[in-house]
Amino acid sequence: MTAEIITIGDELLIGQVVDTNSSWMAAELEKEGFRTRWITSVGDAEEDLLAAVAGALQRVEVVLTTGGLGPTPDDVTMDALCRFFESDRHFSEAIHAQIQDLFLRSEREMNPLTRRQAVVPDRAKPIPNPAGTAPGLWFERNGKVLVALPGVPEEMKRMMQKEVIPRLRQAFGQDVYVRHRTFWVTGLSESALALKLEGFEAGLPSGVKLAYLPREGLVRLRLSACCPSEEEALGQIAEQQEKLAQLLGRPLPGEDDKPPNLLLGEALLAKKWKMGTAESCTGGALAAAITSAPGSSRYYAGGVVSYANEVKCGVLGVAEALMGRFGAVSREVVEQMALGALRTLNCDCAVATSGIAGPEGGTAEKPVGMVWIAVASRDGRMASRCFRFGSILREVNIARAVNAAFVLLLELVSGKES
């Protein structure tokens, strides 16, 4: 089954509000076997919305709209849909009672504009909205369905989960299951990774696809499987994941498109480990990113921002002879920083960064964007890697180093360094 999402509101088109509804809705639809083929945004113009709805219902079986159902004059969705479906309206006592209850619970008084929210199209089935005043609307025509939902994300999500998805499941069933799994890979560019996996992609079975989604310093690999059953889809992904891991020579942890800092936190919690950080060029960005997650105190011991060489030596125990021979941006020094963090912070594993963030300070031998990252664990494992991020922008190099550091440590925590 195919679907289209129409987001409505001038605020979306002028950049005042960022559309997060459509991405969330598309993900929920795909879980139920509905492939979103189009996402359209229109302003608060009735004629534009009519054209969008007409086009969508020609292309797909299910259309979801979000926005424009409020009581103010700029909300045109109700008027447009009544015109499109040639529907009169009636006052719904059930919807009115629900709105009244909402106002009583919040100790507010209903005004005449809000009361108008209980006037609904004759040809639509109202969808209850326990969290707001605008009901959803379910229209059917020629075997196709249009569902209109409020634009407030919290209201829309609750209605989708509690009402819309169950109704779609009952109306259309589910004859295909689409499942995804996303993996984070570092140390290879998107094009280099594609060349390395060219043979793998050519051998993928029917219904399984691989996508490349670059991010600062990383590439997300997304495996997608479209199968007649959920078990078959998950089985196909697991089989191809194992092949990918063998080809790349590293574990590929990842699921549900979670960012590396959250995946790392989950892996640390599973092992009951605590991590530490020793940062130079990232200047505390690693610590900030890991502690941005709620509950990170359960797996983060602390960090040392060893920006000056004196701190690298005096606090982390890096040998001055190493510093003098190889320089601060080197494998030898960054590995000593990671080991020093293990000792100083009394943690189970640690990650260290040392590099040239820029825009100045680079040389021909050590250019701007060159960063050494090392990870170490209390059980004696160590891995280090040199990255050449290539940007002259300081913030970009720092962001890439943070992502790469998390993935490198995640590989070690998952059981295999590369």
Entry keywords:
alpha/beta; 3 domains; Molybdenum Cofactor Biosythetic Enzyme, Chain A; Alpha-Beta Plaits; 41% helix; Maf protein; 418 residues; 16 strands
CATH topology annotation of the largest domain: Molybdenum Cofactor Biosythetic Enzyme, Chain A
User: Regions with pLDDT < 50 over 5+ consecutive residues?
Assistant: none
The fourth-level CATH homologous superfamily of the largest domain is: MoaB/Mog-like domain
How many domains, as an integer?
Answer: 3
Task: Compute the CA-based radius of gyration.
Answer: 27 Å
Strand pairing plus helix content: what structural class? alpha/beta
- The total of helices stands at 16
Number of E-state strands: 16
Q: Characterize the overall form.
A: elongated
**Order of strands in the sheet with most strands:** 2-1-3-8-7-6
Helix residue percentage:
40-55%
Distance between the termini: 42 Å
Word description of this protein:
The mean pLDDT is 93. Helix 2 packs parallel to helix 7 and helix 3 (46-59) crosses helix 4 (77-84). Strand 10 and strand 11 (218-227) form a beta hairpin. The protein has 16 helices and 16 strands. Helix content is 41%, strand content 24%. It has three domains: 2-172, Molybdenum Cofactor Biosythetic Enzyme, Chain A (3-Layer(aba) Sandwich), CATH 3.40.980; 177-248, Alpha-Beta Plaits, CATH 3.30.70.2860; 260-414, Maf protein (Alpha-Beta Complex), CATH 3.90.950. It is elongated. It is of the alpha/beta class and 418 residues long.
